[in-house]
Write a structure and sequence with these properties.
With about 325 residues, the chain is an alpha/beta fold. It is built from ten helices and 13 strands. It has helices at about 5-20, 50-70, 80-90, 100-110, 160-175, 190-200, 210-220, 250-260, 265-270, 315-320; strands spanning about 40-45, 75-80, 95-100, 115-120, 130-135, 150-155, 185, 205-210, 230, 240-245, 275-280, 290-295, 305. The protein has a six-stranded mixed sheet with strand order 2-1-3-10-4-13, sandwiched between helices. The protein has a five-stranded mixed sheet with strand order 7-6-8-5-9. A two-stranded antiparallel sheet has the order 11-12. Helix 5 links the parallel strand 6 (about 150-155) and strand 7 (about 185).
Length: about 325
């Protein structure tokens, strides 16, 4: 990937702001020149939606697996933005992180990190791929991406693959300038984008499909018929788990083993989630009907499957279409 000084500057600025607010993992102290190459602890960063505690708890079984395999205490750190996590990775203060595909694209240009795994929603390999959708209230005049011109539009974050970039690329291909031809509103999270659209703050919201099909209905926030989907993207690679290359090769291999050795059911059987568990959902198939499973990551994944950087080449293609500041860097 190209060297991106512009991206580095914006990421660092965001991180400094977060550090000043006490929200950056950069507060982790140095190991003080310990004799061992292994860190005294590992920091696992997540970017919460509206319920930070729920998200952190869903990763506790994953963290338990990492601690068991590596023998190193691992701390979950909730960071208020993708930029804050990336800045902390630049400073080598976040060892493991999970965030969207585009955030990995940004991070790989400015930090020495690599994806090791991606979520697998069902027993089928590749099932972690997600779609971005445009959702409207029933009866809306918007029925396609072409109808978005001139409208108030809710997005999540400028660095969100499903919550902005994929939709912005589709608008560009439809002849709509996503910076000049609409009135954008960045609200920070997928759940808020949907609820603000339903409250009338915008005409359409672009979010990850799972929020309107599973996550928000399961929480009782929306019910069937509350939204209509008028646009769906091509599949986007699943959410990556990203690890810093400053860790030793042996330790990185152990982390890969920890997150890919189990699925949610075998993790429960291994005793990794005394409290953070649930009944296996129907979409996992008859083999797992009635089984108890760990809450295995923020998306409720069945498992994590191995990932490489080439899995996320699609993000480069999106940026080639957009050519906006958030994608553009200096050679």
């Amino acid at each position: 990937m190209k060297k991106t000084m512009v991206l580095a500057a914006s990421v660092m600025a965001a991180g400094l702001l977060l550090a000043g607010c006490g929200a950056s993992p950069n507060a982790r102290p140095d190991d003080g020149g310990a004799a061992s190459d292994a860190p005294a602890e590992l920091v696992f960063a997540v970017v919460p939606t509206d319920d930070s505690e729920e998200l952190e708890n869903s990763f506790l079984p994953v963290v338990a697996a990492i601690e068991e395999t590596t023998g190193i205490p691992t701390r979950i750190e909730a960071v208020s933005s993708n930029a804050g996590v990336i800045e902390a990775q630049v400073a080598e203060r976040v060892d493991i992180a999970t965030y969207g595909a585009f955030s990995y694209y940004l991070a790989a240009d400015v930090a020495d990190v690599a994806p090791i795994a991606k979520d697998q929603r069902t027993p089928e390999a590749g099932s972690g791929a997600v779609n971005s959708v445009g959702v409207v209230a029933p009866g809306s005049a918007i029925s396609s991406i072409e109808d978005v011109a001139g409208k108030n539009v809710c997005f999540t974050d400028p660095a969100s693959t499903t919550g902005y970039l994929t939709a912005a690329a589709a608008m560009t291909e439809a002849g709509i300038d996503p910076e000049a031809d609409i009135s954008p509103l960045f609200v920070g999270s997928h759940d808020v984008a949907v609820t603000q659209m339903l409250a009338g703050d915008c005409d359409i919201a672009f979010v990850a499909e799972t929020f309107v099909t599973t996550i928000l209905p399961d929480r009782g926030v929306i019910a069937e018929g509350d939204t209509e989907t008028v646009w769906t993207s091509d599949p986007i690679p699943g959410t990556p788990i990203v690890v810093g290359n400053w860790l030793s090769e042996e330790l990185r291999d152990q982390i890969v083993e920890a997150v890919t050795e189990y699925n949610a059911v075998t993790a429960f059987e291994a005793g990794l989630c005394e409290e953070q568990n649930r009944e296996a959902p129907a979409e996992w198939g008859e083999e797992y009907t009635g089984e108890t499973a760990c809450k295995w990551g923020g998306t409720g994944a069945f498992a994590f499957e191995p990932a490489t950087s080439s899995d996320y080449d699609v993000i480069n293609a999106i940026c080639q279409t957009l050519k906006t500041d958030v994608c553009r860097g200096e050679e």
